[in-house]
Write a structure and sequence with these properties.
- The complex is a heterodimer of chains A (493) and B (173).
- Chain A is built from twelve helices and 23 strands.
- By secondary structure, chain A is of the alpha+beta class.
- In chain A, helix 1 (21-50) runs antiparallel to helix 2, helix 5 packs antiparallel against helix 7 and helix 6 (204-223) runs antiparallel to helix 7 (233-250).
- A seven-stranded antiparallel beta sheet of chain A has the order 8-7-6-13-12-11-10, with helices on both faces. In chain A, strands 16-15-14-20-19-18-17 form a seven-stranded antiparallel beta sheet.
- Chain A starts with 5 loop residues before the first strand and ends with a helix.
- By secondary structure, chain B is an alpha+beta fold.
- Chain B has two domains: 22-83; 89-168.
- Chain B contains four helices and seven strands, in the order E-H-H-E-E-E-E-H-E-E-H.
- In chain B, a hairpin with a 3-residue loop joins strand 2 (88-91) and strand 3 (95-100).
- The chains are: A alpha+beta (493), B alpha+beta (173).
- Chains A and B meet through strand 21, strand 22 and helix 11 of A and strand 4 of B.
- Strand 21 (410-415) of chain A pairs antiparallel with strand 4 of chain B, so a sheet runs across the interface.
- Chain B: InterPro entries: YdbS-like_PH.
- Chain B: This is YdbS-like PH domain-containing protein.
- Chain B: The chain crosses the membrane at residues 28-48, 60-80.
Chain lengths: 493, 173
C-alpha cells in the first residue's frame, strides 16, 4: 500500500464508497427477506408437488411468490443504489467531508486537526469482500463519529495515513505536496490465545456461572423437579455468549506504535485497528480484581475524547490492554506517557498498583479515615509526578488512575459533615467522558488543600507547554511556550 | 450584610465574590411552592380520616407524614439564607473558583483554557428578581460549574470576561 501514495483531494473532486457497501451493511435484512419468502415458496413447491391438484387454497400461487421476490429485489436494489449514489466523501488538506442521505440529506465536515482517533473496522462480511469501515473520531463525547463504510482495505489505510499525516502537521515535500507515505509501524506486544482464554476463564463471568450452577443444584435438591433447570438455560446461554464475546473480541490483541500514534489490532471475526494519536489519551486506568491477583494480570483502560464512554461498542474500544502482566502494562504506559515524570517509573507505578502504604512517594489516607474506610484506607493514595497525577484505590479491586497534568479539565475539593469531623476531604479531577473518573478519596485536609492548589498551578503550566495539537509539526513548541511564559510574566508584573 | 460562611477547604488568600441576596427570596418561593404541594398531597389521607371517609387510616401516619414534611420545609427554609451566603466565586489569573455548601462543602476550579462554552439562563422567577444563572461547560461532564443568583448585569460581565479569557488561554482538549 505504501507504494501507492495517497493524494488529498481538490475541493471539487469527490469519491464514492465501494458499491457493495449497502449490501454489506444491509445483508441481514436481505437474508431475512430471502429466508421468509424462500421458505414460503419452497413450501408452496412442496405442497404443489405432493399435493394432488396444484396449489391449495391457503398457498400462494408460484407467480405471486416470484412477483414478491422480484419486487423485494428491485426495492432493495434501488434503495441500495440510491444510498451508494448519494454518499460521497472527500479529504482535503484541512477537512474531511461526508455527504449522505437520500431524502434527509446530511453534509458533515470535520476538521482534520481535531481528530481524536481513527479506527479501521472490518466486520466479518466486510472482510469476505476485502472491505473496511473507517471511523474518524472527534471530541464529541463519543456520540457520532464520521463513518465511511465501506472502502477497500488498502484505500481505508491510505486515507487513515493521509488524515493522520495532515493532523500531525508533517512537513510536506514541496515537490509533491499531496503525496503522503503511511507511517511505519513498530510491533510492541501481542497477547497469546492462551492468555485470552485464561483471562476469560478467570473472570467475573465464571464466578457468576458458578453461582448459577450452585443455585440450580440447590433449587433442584429443594424442589426435586428437574424442570427447574429449564429456567437456568437462558442464563447459561447468556454466559456462553459473554465468553464468546470476550474471547473473539480480544483475540489476537496486538499493540504497535507508529509516529501517528498507538495502534491496537484485535478481533477474531470482526477485526479492528484503532489508532490513537499522541496526546489524545486523556486518562489511563489500570485495574485488577482479586481473581487476577495470583496471575499478576491487569487491564488497561483509556479515556479518549472521541470514544466517550463507548456504550454502543460494549466498552471494547476504551480497552488499551485487555489482560497483561506488569511488564506489558508498563510497556503500554510508556507508549501513552513517554515521560512519566519520575526517575524510577517502574517502581512508582508498581507501588501504585500494589500498595499499601506510603512507599515511592504515595500518600495514603490518614488514620482517621479508617472509620469510613476500615479496609482500604492504606490503599487509597495519590502521588503527583512532574507530568501526571496518580490515584490509587482499593484493596480487593485495585485501580490506579493516571491523568497527565495538561489533560486536567477541572478540579473539585468536596467534604461532607462526617468527613469534616474526621478532617478528611475528597479530591476529584475531571477528565473527558470515559471509563475513568479520577478521584482521590479521603485525603487529609492539609494534603487535600495543598494538592488542590498545586494541581491547579501544575495544570496551568502544563497547558502552556503542551499547547500544540500537531504532534509532528516542525514549529518549535518549546520556544513558543517559552514565549507564552514570558508574556505571562509580563502580564503578571 | 452578614459574613460569608467559610469552610476548612477554602483555598487561602482568595477573596470570594458573593451572589445576590435576592437568591434567598427566589429559593424561598421556589422551595416553598414545592413544599406546599407536597404538604397538601400528604395531608389528603388525614383529611379523609377526619371527615370519616377513610376511618381505617392509621392516625400516627396521618399526622406523622405531614408533620415530617412540615419540619423538613422549615429546616430547609432556615438553611437557605446560609446556603446562599455560602455560594461564592473568584476570578483568578488562570481559572475560576466556585465554592458552595455549608454542610457539604465543595470548591471547584475551572481553568479558562478548558471552557468549551458558557450558558447564561434566566427562569421566570429569576427574571422577576433580575437574576441569572451562569453555567460553565468543559469537555468533561463532571464539571458541574454552576453559579446561581447572579444579578443580570454581573452575569453579562462575567460571561464576557470568561469568554475573553477563554479565548486568550485557549488550549485543546
Amino acid at each position: 500500500m505504501s507504494e501507492q501514495p495517497f493524494t488529498t483531494d481538490a475541493p471539487e473532486s469527490w469519491h464514492r464508497v465501494h458499491p457493495v457497501s449497502p449490501l454489506v451493511r444491509g445483508w441481514v435484512a436481505v437474508v431475512a427477506v430471502l429466508f421468509i419468502f424462500g421458505r414460503n415458496s419452497l413450501e408452496t413447491l412442496f405442497s404443489s408437488s405432493l399435493g394432488n391438484s396444484g396449489p391449495g387454497p391457503g398457498g400462494a400461487p408460484a407467480v405471486l411468490v416470484l412477483a414478491v421476490v422480484g419486487a423485494a429485489v428491485v426495492i432493495f436494489g434501488v434503495s441500495f443504489f440510491l444510498q451508494w449514489r448519494f454518499t460521497r466523501y472527500q479529504v482535503t488538506d484541512e477537512h474531511v467531508h461526508i455527504n449522505s442521505g437520500v431524502i434527509f440529506r446530511q453534509q458533515r465536515r470535520a476538521r482534520i486537526d481535531r481528530v481524536q482517533a481513527i479506527d479501521v473496522v472490518q466486520p466479518l462480511v466486510a472482510r469476505a469482500f476485502g472491505l473496511a469501515e473507517l471511523k474518524f473520531e472527534v471530541a464529541d463525547g463519543g456520540k457520532s463519529a464520521m463513518k465511511l463504510s465501506f472502502l477497500k482495505l488498502a484505500e481505508a489505510k491510505r486515507l487513515r495515513a493521509a488524515i493522520l499525516a495532515r493532523a500531525a502537521g508533517v512537513v510536506i515535500d514541496p515537490q509533491a505536496p499531496q503525496h503522503i507515505q503511511e507511517a511505519p509501524e513498530t510491533h510492541i506486544l501481542a497477547l497469546k490465545p492462551a492468555r485470552i482464554f485464561g483471562a476469560a476463564i478467570f473472570s467475573s463471568t465464571t464466578v457468576f456461572a458458578l453461582i448459577v450452577v450452585v443455585a440450580s443444584i440447590v433449587a433442584l435438591e429443594w424442589t426435586g423437579h428437574p424442570g427447574i433447570l429449564v429456567a437456568a438455560i437462558p442464563i447459561f446461554i447468556g454466559i456462553g455468549a459473554q465468553y464468546w464475546k470476550t474471547i473473539t473480541g480480544d483475540f489476537n490483541f496486538r499493540v504497535a506504535v507508529s509516529p501517528d500514534g498507538v495502534r491496537l489490532h484485535y478481533g477474531m471475526l470482526e477485526t479492528r485497528a484503532q489508532t490513537i494519536p499522541p496526546g489524545r489519551v486523556q486518562a489511563v486506568g489500570i485495574s485488577q480484581g482479586p481473581i487476577w491477583r495470583p496471575f499478576g494480570w491487569y487491564r488497561v483502560h483509556v479515556n479518549v475524547a472521541g470514544y466517550g464512554s463507548d456504550v454502543s461498542e460494549g466498552g471494547s474500544r476504551t480497552v488499551m490492554l485487555p489482560v497483561g502482566t506488569l511488564d506489558e502494562v508498563m510497556a503500554v504506559l510508556g507508549l501513552v506517557f513517554p515521560n512519566p515524570g519520575v526517575e524510577n517509573p517502574f517502581e512508582v507505578f508498581a507501588a501504585g498498583l500494589q500498595g499499601p502504604g506510603n512507599a515511592q512517594g504515595f500518600v495514603h489516607s490518614p488514620r482517621s479515615a479508617r472509620w469510613i474506610d476500615p479496609l482500604a484506607w492504606r490503599y487509597n493514595a495519590f502521588r503527583a509526578t512532574d507530568t501526571a497525577l496518580l490515584c490509587r484505590h482499593g484493596r480487593f479491586f485495585r485501580r490506579l488512575q493516571v491523568v497527565p497534568h495538561e489533560r486536567t479539565q477541572s478540579l473539585v475539593l468536596a467534604q461532607g459533615p462526617l468527613m469534616a469531623a474526621l478532617g478528611l476531604v475528597n479530591f476529584e479531577l475531571h477528565s473527558t467522558v470515559g471509563p475513568i473518573r479520577p478521584v482521590v478519596h479521603h485525603m487529609a485536609l492539609a494534603a487535600g488543600r495543598a494538592l488542590f492548589d498545586e494541581q491547579a498551578a501544575r495544570a496551568a503550566t502544563a497547558r502552556r507547554i503542551h499547547n500544540s495539537e500537531r504532534w509532528l509539526a516542525p514549529s518549535d513548541t518549546a520556544a513558543s511556550s517559552q514565549l507564552d511564559l514570558s508574556k505571562e510574566q509580563q502580564r503578571g508584573d | 450584610m452578614p459574613e460569608q460562611h467559610s469552610s476548612a477547604i477554602d483555598p487561602a488568600d482568595v477573596k470570594f465574590l458573593r451572589v445576590s441576596e435576592k437568591l434567598v427570596t427566589a429559593r424561598f418561593i421556589e422551595r416553598g411552592i414545592v413544599g406546599l404541594i407536597l404538604l397538601a398531597l400528604t395531608s389528603v389521607p388525614l383529611i379523609l380520616r377526619l371527615t370519616d371517609v377513610w376511618g381505617g387510616y392509621p392516625a400516627w401516619l396521618g399526622w406523622g407524614l405531614p408533620a415530617v414534611i412540615a419540619i423538613s420545609i422549615v429546616w430547609e427554609m432556615i438553611l437557605i439564607p446560609r446556603q446562599v451566603r455560602a455560594i461564592g466565586y473568584a476570578e483568578r489569573n488562570d481559572d475560576l473558583l466556585i465554592r458552595s455548601g455549608i454542610m457539604f462543602h465543595r470548591v471547584m476550579v475551572v481553568p479558562y483554557g478548558r471552557m468549551q462554552y458558557v450558558d447564561v439562563t434566566m427562569g421566570p422567577l429569576e427574571r422577576m428578581l433580575g437574576l441569572s444563572t451562569i453555567h460553565l461547560h468543559t469537555a468533561s461532564p463532571g464539571t458541574n460549574a454552576l453559579i446561581n443568583g447572579l444579578p443580570a448585569g454581573e452575569a453579562a460581565r462575567l460571561r464576557e470576561q470568561l469568554s475573553a479569557r477563554g479565548e486568550a488561554k485557549l488550549a485543546g482538549l
